[in-house]
Automatic annotation (TrEMBL):
Co-factor(s): FAD
Biological-process GO terms, alphabetical: aerobic electron transport chain
InterPro entries, per the entry: FAD/NAD-bd_sf, FAD/NAD-binding_dom, NADH-Q_oxidoreductase
PANTHER family documented for this protein: APOPTOSIS-INDUCING FACTOR 1, SLR1591 PROTEIN
Listed name of the protein: FAD-dependent pyridine nucleotide-disulphide oxidoreductase
Length: 370
């Protein structure tokens, strides 16, 4: 009998969560640790902000599925891992022992640019925060012409500004001014054809895409750029990129340049072979990966197979990241921009395709709740 601990209920653990009953029937104990009873699918987060989806559409009942299939769920936050004693230390003060540990702790938006004691500021992760932000947007535009600023110039920022506009347009309230502080190059890592289409979609609605300077400081009521210019804001969204959980570095585990858990081709820590990981929180040493959900989804079956193999002393399988992936941005108003190799499309069709793929993914795992 082995003791498996799943730290986090994110995308890369979905197959493992769906197989808890199988693991228990094989004589293993399974403990799932998560900061919330539900896991929210980040790919549908901007759509929830815009009102396309309800919270129930985009979440998975981690606690319910775990307990229904004979596992133990702990609503807590991982603070530290002790690889020598094979234990996980939690924010509550509890400790959980493991024979095999799998980490899917995700990533977060750094708040290093936020002045102390500032309010009215929302990060785009965790996704649950976008529901709170949605209610705040609706409340403030119901009583004034608001100024909303999004700090960031990448895909997350583009999806957020597009869906804030969609939310406001459908509310019947005053349309806010929406200002994106995009550094010095909007969506810089993408081909010009993609950038042009996204820019055209957003700018056509009156959204300001500011490429004059990087953000220096965010504080209550204002965003200050490195140029010294101040942009007044009733609400600020932070979409300045994501970084992995600090747990691994705090725990003295081997990490990559991005401070994610360093893993080999088997999604396994090279220094501690009983520790595995997937999703945004890892640094895949054979081939560093973009922080996009598609890789977590692709890792699912391999990660589960290797956790079971490790528990039962069998050979591990290597993870193949695969080739180019389909990328679709949800820009609000049920429109999007699609990129797949040389194909680039914009309009309603990309959104409909993304909506179909995302709903199918969620439905597959939500059926486990029944």
């Amino acid at each position: 009998m082995g003791n498996l601990v799943l730290a986090g209920g994110g995308h890369a653990h979905m197959v493992a969560l769906s197989r808890i009953g199988e693991l228990v029937n094989r004589g293993h104990r399974v403990t799932v640790i998560g900061p919330s009873p539900h896991h929210y699918y980040s790919g549908m987060g901007p759509g929830m902000l815009g009102g396309t989806y309800s919270p129930e559409d985009i979440r998975f009942d981690t606690r319910g599925v775990t307990e229904k299939n004979g596992g133990t769920f702990m609503c807590d936050r991982v603070e530290r891992i002790d690889p020598d004693r094979r234990s996980v230390h939690l924010a509550s003060g509890d400790k959980v022992s493991y024979d095999v540990l799998s980490c899917n702790l995700g990533s977060h938006v750094p708040r290093s640019l936020v002045a102390e004691d500032s309010g009215g500021i929302y990060t785009v992760k965790p996704i649950e925060k976008l529901l709170e932000a949605r209610q705040r947007v609706l409340e403030i535009i119901s009583r004034k012409k608001a100024a909303i600023v999004v700090a960031g110039g990448g895909p997350a920022a583009a999806e957020v500004v597009g869906n804030i506009h969609y939310l406001a347009a459908g509310s019947g309230q005053q349309m806010p001014t929406i200002h994106m502080c995009a550094g010095t190059a909007f969506m810089a890592r993408f081909p010009e054809k993609v950038r042009r289409r996204v820019r055209r979609s957003l700018a056509g609605r009156g959204i300001v895409i500011d490429e004059t300077a990087f953000v220096q400081t965010v504080q209550t009521g204002a965003v200050i750029l490195e140029s010294g210019r101040t942009i007044e804001a009733d609400l600020v969204f932070l979409a300045l990129g994501v970084i992995p959980s600090p747990v691994f570095e705090t725990s003295g585990l081997s990490v990559g340049p991005d401070r994610g858990l360093r893993v080999n081709a088997f999604l396994q820590s090279p220094d501690h072979p009983e520790i595995f990981g997937g999703g945004d929180c890892i640094y895949f040493e054979p081939h560093p990966l973009d922080k996009v959900g598609v890789y977590a989804v692709r890792q699912n079956p391999v990660l589960y197979a290797n956790l079971l193999a490790s528990l039962e002393g069998k050979p591990l399988l290597p993870f193949d990241p695969g080739g180019d992936y389909l990328l679709i941005f949800n820009l609000g108003h049920r429109t999007g921009v699609l990129k797949k190799r040389g194909l680039i499309m914009e309009g309603r069709l990309p959104f409909l395709l993304k909506d179909y793929i995302d709903r199918r993914f969620m439905t597959k795992f939500q059926r486990l709740e029944e």
